[in-house]
Write a structure and sequence with these properties.
The protein is built from three helices and seven strands. With 133 residues, it is of the alpha/beta class.
Length: 133
């Protein structure tokens, strides 16, 4: 297991392992920056207010107040129109490991800065007893 440092994000060991193998190890900068310093926990011990892979979350865009429901997923499961955003996308990468009340920040492909508060976690696989998704 890698050295665990306090990085402000919490990831399950399973998500961490899968992400490190994803895309041949070529990850977006935000993931590349956050993975080495994330707090790693066993899937059975992850708090219910932490965004893990396949968690459905509600965010509130800071600039507009628009509320969105998003689910960070692996690239093969991405369906952005349905709210299933790839963890390799700017918004997907920015959400992973945050907790309710945290602010996600990212840049759109055209360079616009975005920020949104994590309002709630509507579904988290681990909280429902799924420790292998």
């Amino acid at each position: 297991m890698p050295t665990v440092k306090s990085g402000g994000r919490t990831l399950t060991q399973l998500d961490f392992t899968r992400l490190c193998k994803l895309n041949g190890g070529l990850l977006p900068d935000v993931l590349d920056d956050h993975l080495p310093v994330a707090d790693l926990v066993n899937s059975r011990e992850v708090p219910g207010d932490v965004i893990t892979m396949y968690s459905q979350v509600e965010i509130c865009m800071q600039e507009t107040g628009l509320r969105l429901r998003l689910t960070p997923v692996y690239p093969t499961d991405a369906e952005p129109v349905s709210g299933f955003v790839s963890v390799l996308s700017p918004v997907g990468a920015s959400l992973l490991g945050l907790s309710v009340g945290d602010t996600a920040t990212w840049c759109t492909p055209n360079g616009d800065a975005c920020a949104a508060e994590v309002v709630s976690i509507l579904f988290q696989p681990e909280a429902s007893g799924d420790f292998t998704t």
